Amino acid sequence: MIAFLYSFSALLYGLRIFTFVFGATRERSKIIVNSSTDLPFISVIVPARNEESNIRTCIESLSKSKYPLDKFEIIVVNDRSTDSTAKVLDSLISLYTNLKIITLTENRTNKNLQGKPGALQAGIDNSKGEILLFTDADCTVDTLWITTLARQFSNPKVGLVPSFTVIKANTTFEQMQAIEWLMNHTMACAGVGIGQPLGCYGNNLGVRKTAYESVGGYANIRFSVTEDLTLLQAIFAQGWEVRYVCSPDSVVTTLPCSTLREYILQHHRWLRGGVDLGWRAVVFVAFSASLWICITTAIFNNHYWLLPIIFGIRVLGDFAVIAPTLTILKRKKQIGWAFLAVGFITVLELVMPISLLKKEVVWKGQTFR
Question: Does residue 369 register a pLDDT over 80?
């Protein structure tokens, strides 16, 4: 029986590694580097709620994009901010000819448009681009971000294009977050590669407007605290193709959680939203649980000599998944942190599911159910 548990757990974990390595490799091969089609008009939409400290840097970053100025607009949606976000935006409007500001002052009556989905919808309603790109106010983009994502839409079947977000990291805690984000992106990329939408990050996302309209937009999509995942699922279900781009030219850089409390709230939101994955979430949990089955079995049977072997396999397996990402995104300096982060992520997988017992999600000063 003990031998069976070890064997079964090893099989599950091996399947996990193979799935993510194969899927990510397959998806990375689909990137369009050059396109002969005309450059489409792009609307970059940035929801901002109490972002007085970040919004200026974000807009300055977007303005430096190597994309024709007459071919893109920046739409910032000031979503009921109570700080000085409005004043900062007012000081910028005269500096950038392609900057448009939408100000929201009232709560939405449509339940599907609570929080961020409502801000995005307001931006989309006021956009004129055939391609919509989303990022957040606490982010900066690569100068080729718009160009790289726009190229992927030269294939008319492509409806949605996510890409990788990296964390600006200095401290150990921030480096752990940085590696975790890259691992999550890689697994999400792999999911698309095998035809299973597992997730994406809404701060680095592109969508064809006709694809967005084909699902009825956020007004027609059931509200979720992970609005990016629900949009991915909806567009995927409509038969549109998805391209998950792994390229240094399409990277968005964001800020890490500064406190443990903020970090826990962030992951609670992700877990609550991840419930929408249904059977995919169950399979993912089973993959993760395989490691703990081995650890528990080893401890209860005094097979302590197996523990370093089990952890060694986990480290090497996860490294096999994330190493190509670190190489492609030119982040080899984080390889050392990747080995350390495996332990951090392993413990996280055990502890964080407990937070699912709490149904209320608190984010950006708002509470969602």
Answer: no
Inter-helix orientation angle 306-328/172-193, to 10°: 80
Q: Looking at the 3D structure of the chain, how many domains does it have?
A: 2
Around 242, how many Cα atoms within 13 Å sit in the side-chain half-sphere?
A: 28
Residue 48 DSSP symbol? E
Q: What is the pLDDT of residue 368?
A: 62
The kind and range of the H/E element at 295 are: helix 279-300
Which residue range forms the structural domain that includes residue 221? Answer: 31-272
CATH number of the domain where residue 136 is located? 3.90.550.10
Q: Give the Cα separation of 3 and 294 in Å (integer).
A: 10
Quote the strand ranges of the chain, DSSP E: 42-48, 72-79, 99-104, 131-134, 139-141, 158-162, 165-167, 205-208, 241-242, 252-254, 361-363, 366-368
Same domain? For 319 and 174 the reply is: no
Nearest to 76, CA basis, from 115, 32, 22, 134: 134
pTM: 0.91
Q: Are residues 299 and 235 in the same domain?
A: no
Single out the residue in 244, 272, 300 at which a domain terminates: 272
Using one digit for the tens of pLDDT, what is the confidence trace for 243-264? Answer: 999 999 999 999 999 898 888 8
Rounded CA-CA distance 150/249 in Å is: 12
For residue range 6-44, list pLDDT tens digits in order: 677 777 788 888 999 999 999 999 988 877 678 899 999
What CA–CA distance (Å, rounded) separates 282 from 177?
24
- For residues 70 and 176, membership in a common domain is answered with yes
